[in-house]
Design brief:
- By secondary structure, the protein is of the alpha/beta class.
- Helix content is 29%, strand content 24%.
- The radius of gyration is 21 Å and the shape is elongated.
- The chain starts with a strand and ends with a helix.
């Protein structure tokens, strides 16, 4: 394998997206299984220096392109054009990107510009003599499949929290390169930026998540969920049913149509454990469920199930936590 490239996605403030650190970690692992292929990070943006420095902690080499137009326009198509020009010039085998909103846009545009195929939403990658083998969770997590790229060359998007980010032993080098060619594709202007309303603690990186489902009963029930999360030093999560009912913002939704999380502890309150929700939290280190129904689907994969009323159990947990902290 001649080379593995990692797209370094930048947040609005110029910092490197957490997902890109996970993808970079996976790229190093893949390179080790593929005979030591060279891993290179690519950071393209209006102010890429900070993100490039962060990515250099995870890969041996980072190429940086300054592209001012990403300030006022959606980055996916613009970055794809700059990246396509670099691919034509340097010809890597594999391009890895996060399977977030920007990464999905980037992969589609990059495929159209380069003619390379895409493997989407990989949860794992392993090396083989014919190129990387991607593992996918499909049909709401009911099946696990494996796919390969024709000729071992193409683009792979990686789902959030598929791996745990680990910095390299030593930081890599950073090289500034000039953007090649002109931007010819239509640009999508950014009209406004709206900060999502949600809990103070983000579920993306939380070590502890207390999540509520339909069994919480209403928005008032999430008061108890929030109290438990605060006492445990964690974040509040929710199922799609709770979000669709308007009890909690979408930013806290976990599952197939929400976020994928990987906390150390997942406390599921009043959650039945439908497959769509399981997809988003099944990789938690420890899952504890509180449910009145001992036969709820979540009992099949939780590490511990407490059968009882979630309010009574929740209040008892709170009392114990407060007694210990007092």
């Amino acid at each position: 394998m001649a080379g593995i490239w990692v797209h370094g996605e930048l947040a609005a403030d110029g910092s490197l997206a957490k997902l890109s650190t996970e993808v970079a970690t996976l790229a190093r692992s893949l390179a080790g299984e593929s005979g030591g292929a060279e891993v290179t990070g690519i950071v393209i943006g209006a102010d890429p220096a900070g993100g490039a420095a962060e990515l250099a902690r995870f890969v041996p080499r980072v190429l940086v392109v300054t592209e001012p137009s990403t300030v006022d326009h959606a980055a996916g198509t613009i970055v794809a054009q700059r990246l396509a020009a670099l691919i034509e010039e340097r010809d890597p085998d594999i391009v890895l990107a996060g399977a977030g909103p920007e990464g999905r846009d980037l992969a589609g545009a990059l495929s159209a510009l380069t003619g390379r195929g895409v493997l989407a939403n990989a949860i794992a990658l392993r090396g083989s003599p014919d190129g990387p083998i991607a593992t996918h969770s499909v049909f709401g997590g009911k099946l696990i499949t494996e796919s390969a790229l024709t000729g071992g060359r193409g683009i792979v998007t990686v789902r959030p929290n598929a791996v745990t980010a680990e910095a390299a032993d030593s930081p890599g080098s950073i090289e500034t390169v000039a953007p090649a060619g002109e931007l010819t594709q239509p640009a999508v202007p950014i009209i406004d930026r709206i900060e999502a309303q949600g809990a103070a603690a983000s579920i993306d990186d939380a070590r502890i998540i207390v999540a509520g489902g339909r069994g919480v009963g209403g928005p008032e029930g999430f008061g108890l969920i929030a109290d438990l999360a605060e006492a445990l030093g964690g974040a509040v999560g929710a199922t799609r049913a709770a979000v669709d009912s308007g009890w909690i913002p979408y930013s806290q939704q976990i599952g197939q149509t929400g976020k994928i999380v990987k906390p150390q502890l997942y406390l599921a309150m009043g959650i039945s454990g439908a497959i769509q929700h399981k997809v988003g939290m099944q990789t938690a280190s420890t899952i504890i469920a509180v449910n009145r129904d001992p036969d709820a689907p979540i009992a099949d994969f939780a590490d511990m199930v407490v059968v009882g009323d979630l309010v009574e159990v929740g209040q008892a947990i709170l009392a114990q936590l407060r007694e210990r902290s007092g």
